C-alpha cells in the first residue's frame, strides 16, 4: 500500500479549519453533483437518509475525521472496517471509486471557486490513498462472503412477533443450506422501489445456527413527523410480501458480532442490551452463547408488553441455560404489564449489570442508543468494551439530543 508524501499531508491538514466550517455545504453539493451526472450510483444510498440530511452530515464528519487523522491512518481502522463491510453488503466495487473521487474533487473546486491546484492535487492523492485501503479490504470481504451479489430466497414462513415486528423465515430457492454467519451480522435485501428500479436495505439476522433457514425480523416503520414518509422497505415487506414469495438477499456481512469462541476462552461476561427492534442481532448473539461457560445477561427494553417481541423465545433460552440471565424493562408500561423494571437505561440501572470487565453490546432506536452511549461514557466504561450496531450514519448518535 502506498504512503502519502509530506507535502500532501501538510496541505490536507491545513484544510481542516475550512472543512470544519464548510463540510456540510461541501457534501450536500457533492451528492447533488454525483446523482445528477452519475444517477446509476443512487441505488447504493438510502433515500430517507438523503432527505433527512443525515447522509450528508455523516460524510461531512468522515471527511473531517480523515483530514484530522491523515498522519495516523491506523486510528481510522474501525471506520474502514465499518465502511468496508457496508460497501461489500451493497456490492460496491473498485470501479465505483473514481466516480466518487471525481465529484468530491469537483465539489471542492466548485466550493473554492476555483480551488488552488495544490489543494486539488493533495486531496486527489489523499482520496486515492483511502480508496486503495477500502478497495483492498472489500476484496478480502468478498472472498470471505458466501456469495457475491444477490441470491434468491423463498419466504417459508411469516410470524407476527409484536404489534409492529414481523419475522420472515427464508430458505434458499436453490435448496442450498443457509449460509454461515457470525452472530450479530446482517443481510442485505434488494427490493423493487416502485419506480422501475431497486433499493437495498440491511436487516440483522435474528437467529443463529439453523442450517436450513435465515430469519430477519422487521419493524413496520411509521413516520416520526407528519411531513415524513413511512419507511418504504419495511412497509413493503409487511404489506406486500407473502409466504412463497421470493426475495433477493446478499450474503451475511457486518463487523458487529459476538466472538463466542473468544469469550469461551476468556470467560469475560457479556451484556446484551436492546431496545425495540434492536433486539434482532442480540437474539442471534444470545442463541450462539446460550449454554456456553461465560455469563450472559440479556436486557431487553420495550415500551410495553404489546411491543415486546420474542418474550417466550428469550424466556425459554434463559430457563434452559444456566449461563443466561434475562431482564425486561418497559419505558411506558400499560395497565397489567409486569416487566422486571420500568424506566430508561440510565447509569444507575446499567451499573447493576456491568463490571469493568463486561463486554457491552447494544442496539436499538437512535435516542436509546445515544442515551446508553452517553451513560457508559459517564460511567467510565472502557471504550474498547463498548460495541454497538446502528443502521444509519453513526455520527447521528453523537449529535442526538439524548447523548
UniProtKB/TrEMBL annotation:
Q: Keywords of this protein's UniProt record, alphabetized?
A: Heme, Iron, Metal-binding, NAD, NADP, Oxidoreductase, Oxygen transport, Transport
Top-level taxon = Bacteria
Q: Which Pfam families match?
A: FAD_binding_6, Globin, NAD_binding_1
Q: Where is the FAD-binding FR-type domain?
A: 148-259
Q: Which InterPro entries match?
A: Cbr1-like_FAD-bd_dom (IPR008333), FAD-bd_FR_type (IPR017927), Flavoprot_Pyr_Nucl_cyt_Rdtase (IPR001709), FNR_nucleotide-bd (IPR039261), Globin (IPR000971), Globin-like_sf (IPR009050), Globin/Proto (IPR012292), OxRdtase_FAD/NAD-bd (IPR001433)
Q: Which cofactor does it need?
A: heme b
The EC number(s) this enzyme carries = 1.14.12.17
KW Metal-binding (keyword) present: yes
Keyword Heme attached: yes
One Gene Ontology term of the molecular function aspect:
nitric oxide dioxygenase NAD(P)H activity
SUPFAM superfamilies (UniProt xref): Ferredoxin reductase-like, C-terminal NADP-linked domain, Globin-like, Riboflavin synthase domain-like
- Which reactions appear under catalytic activity for this entry? 2 nitric oxide + NADPH + 2 O2 = 2 nitrate + NADP(+) + H(+); 2 nitric oxide + NADH + 2 O2 = 2 nitrate + NAD(+) + H(+)
Q: Where is the Globin domain?
A: 3-139
Gene3D superfamilies per the UniProt record, alphabetical: Globins (1.10.490.10), Nucleotide-binding domain of ferredoxin-NADP reductase (FNR) module (3.40.50.80), Translation factors (2.40.30.10)
- Family in the record: Belongs to the globin family. In the C-terminal section; belongs to the flavoprotein pyridine nucleotide cytochrome reductase family.
| Annotated protein name in UniProt | nitric oxide dioxygenase
Species of origin reads Rubritalea spongiae
